[in-house]
Amino acid sequence: MKVATANQMRSIDKYCIENIGIPGIVLMENAALKVVENIDKYDSFTIVAGTGNNGGDGLAIARHLIVKNKKANIYLIGTPEKMSKDCKINYNILLNMNVKINTINQGEDLKSLKESVSTKQVTVDSIFGTGLSGEVRGIYSDVISIINKYSSYTVSVDIPSGLECDTGKVLGISVKADKTVTFQLNKKGFLNPESKKYTGKVKVESIGIPNFVVEKFI
Ligand SMILES: NC(=O)C1=CN([C@@H]2O[C@H](COP(=O)(O)OP(=O)(O)OC[C@H]3O[C@@H](n4cnc5c(N)ncnc54)[C@H](O)[C@@H]3O)[C@@H](O)[C@H]2O)[C@@H](O)CC1
Ligand SMILES: [K+]
Fold it and tell me: Is the pTM of this model over 0.80?
């Protein structure tokens, strides 16, 4: 089975967007729908989103769960100003749907997150994906501790947040997922036996990237 590094995934995504003309938001929507397919047997969710494209996946996942009349509590770490273009698109759609988005800025907000993670069936981890760089610190670290302590079932989007894509090393702290739905290709870091503790069961899902594009980079 082919495996990809973060840079290879970034190059593949970039080539798709710039040379083939598949917009990033289409890849993001495909990614979100694949995660929803893997979790829609459940009824209640806590979605924890960062402000990069991994967070954008999470916001799109939340939208599809809500449209399916599931209970979905959304927690955003970071400010909308920091959002990537595609994350912002999914954020604005949810605002236009009058969906409540809880923001986590300080300790007080963590109580509400703990309450949701402890009572909903599934926690969706869409904090960081292949864009994680450097140690996880501060409020991000607090959020991951809460997920690891109180979540009964955790699904990580693309990569457990806190795990380094290329090595499978923990950068300070990482989400311990029961299942990781990773996009298009398995990740090199998942070959590290130590990573199993954090990825849980890994499911590789295509997000519509043509094979010839993958073969250009791997
Ligand atoms: N078009 C694409 O590139 C697609 C990407 N996808 C998703 O996008 C992800 C990659 O997205 P990005 O490259 O935006 O990056 P991520 O969303 O993985 O994370 C980057 C964000 O986290 C912040 N960050 C990074 N390291 C940090 C640290 N140590 N402490 C605090 N904040 C930190 C960055 O400032 C940035 O806001 C993939 O894992 C996948 O989930 C999918 O939507 C498929 C399409
Ligand atoms: K993640």
Answer: yes
In a domain, 215, yes or no: no
- Tell me the C-alpha distance between 40 and 126, whole Å: 16
Ligand-binding site membership of 13 (annotated): no
Lining ligand 1 with CB less than 6 A are: 13, 24, 27-28, 31, 50-55, 57, 82, 84, 128-136, 140, 157-159, 183, 207
21 a known binding residue?
Answer: no
Band of the pLDDT at 108, cuts 50, 70, 90? confident
Does residue 218 lie within any of the structural domains? no
Report which of 25, 54, 23 is spatially closest to residue 131, judged by C-alpha positions.
54
Residue closest by Cα to atom 24 of ligand 1: 132
Residue 138 known to bind ligand: no
What pLDDT is attached to residue 55?
98
- Ligand 1 atom at minimum distance from 10 CA: 3
* Cα–ligand 1 centroid distance for 55 (angstroms): 7
Residue 199, in any domain of the structure: yes
- Boundaries of domain holding 44: 3-210
Q: Which pLDDT value is given to residue 1?
A: 86
The total number of structural domains that make up the chain: 1
CATH code, domain carrying 206? 3.40.50.10260
Continuous H helices in 97-177? 107-119, 138-150
